[in-house]
Amino acid sequence: MKDYLIAPSILGADFARLGEETATVLAAGADMLHIDVMDNHYVPNLTMGPMICTALRNYGIQAPLDVHLMVQPVDRIIGDFIEAGASYISFHPDATIHLDRTLQQIKDAGCKAGLAFNPGSSLDALKYVIDKVDMILLMSVNPGFGGQSFIGSVLPKLREARSIIEKSGRNIRLEVDGGISVETIRAVALAGADTFVAGSAIFNSSNYQQTISQMRKQLSAVPIKK
Ligand code: DX5
Ligand code: ZN
User: Fold this and answer.
1) What number of other Cβ atoms are within 10 A of residue 52's Cβ?
2) 50 lines ligand 1 (CB under 6 A)
């Protein structure tokens, strides 16, 4: 039986106190940490590399690390994130030339592989590689920055992705990323999401535990799709 997973994006955390922030958010009930990797090329912002994952692991963080690559090219950096302790590695299909090879590279290293889709991108890329996908990540903002407004066109797209997952018969997580808050989480769950990235909604709140439990309360009324 699958559970809903809440994955705070550390992009919203106070980087001067990253170890403490991540430990606090996990103690507050988060399930895994979402790591937004931006290269000022695929997206117009520059954030963090594998050394952040290494630092979190060395600090004692044992929760899954959900790495979201917004970089181009993708392949060269994958091994570094695996060595640094990544659990999931997601990338955007339009950021790599050989989609199947990139997925295979992640799987061969024993890591879970995710495909990420921008708000304006179709899900066509899934068609021939679904057997190698462990997570589908649908962006509900254009990638590059935290704190943006939720784009509602992700709702029918989540339903489409859920139906693709059902048809595949595979155990694939459906993650939604961008503008997720206590206000929006229920609608995305109803549309089929089971994994929720939230940056500013959690890290800008004064009480992480209260915010996460309010999110779980919203989810409790929505039976999980399997
Ligand atoms: C955007 C990132 C998101 C972002 C989410 O490019 O992929 O993970 O940090 O932040 P919020 O929850 O603030 O929209
Ligand atoms: Zn992300």
Assistant:
1) 21
2) no
